[in-house]
Amino acid sequence: MMKSIYKKILLNSLGFIxxxxxxxYANSSIAQTPLTTWQEHLEYAKNNFGGLNEGxxxxxxxxxxxYKGVIKSxxxxxxxxxxxxxxxxxxxxxxPPIIRTDTIIMGDSIVIQKKSFPxxxxxxxxxxxxxAETTGEENPVILMKRQLTQLIQIGFEYLELEWHYKGKxxxxxCIVSNKNEGVIYEPIGGNITIGTNITIEKTTKY
Length: 206
Known about the structure:
The chain is an alpha+beta fold. It has one domain. The protein has helices at about 1-15, 20-30, 40-50, 75-85, 125-135, 140-150, and strands at about 60-70, 90-105, 110-125, 155-165, 170-175, 180-185, 195-205. It has a 4-stranded antiparallel beta sheet with strand order 1-4-5-6, with helices on both faces. Strand 2 and strand 3 (about 110-125) form a beta hairpin. Helix 1 (about 1-15) packs across helix 5 (about 125-135). The model is unreliable at about 1-20 (pLDDT under 50).
């Protein structure tokens, strides 16, 4: 039973490795004026996190970010990827989502609204690898390294982000490029879906 749960967690987390940076951009999309640079996106996210989200995402806050430099060579690129995949680097472990169901009776119909909110924990790469070993799956870092090697380019810039989540502080590496849509990759806020998924089913009363 526990093995199947771990496998589901691993697969869910793998599915989000290189998703769009949805948590950061979803918050930024609420801004009244368009945000066109990574600086604007992160600054807006830092000042508007938490209360805008539901589920576990409401506990996640971007506290600060520090510019680290430009990736100028393959050596720089490999060092950054190494930092992203180090044993102590953070990774989001996706858990079964929080589901809220509301039933509304409207005349001869029953309307069922289901809202899904993210539920997750922030673990380390080391813990992620241990889960893969428990389930007999391939080391997820192998796939992640391959994808990051393709994604990150010389000329991109990188930052260090500070997050608070459920009373704990986490630090992550964020890859950015204003020539390529701003935030390219970030392992915490970039791997969390926010907003609600709403399913409405209508059935006729008998």
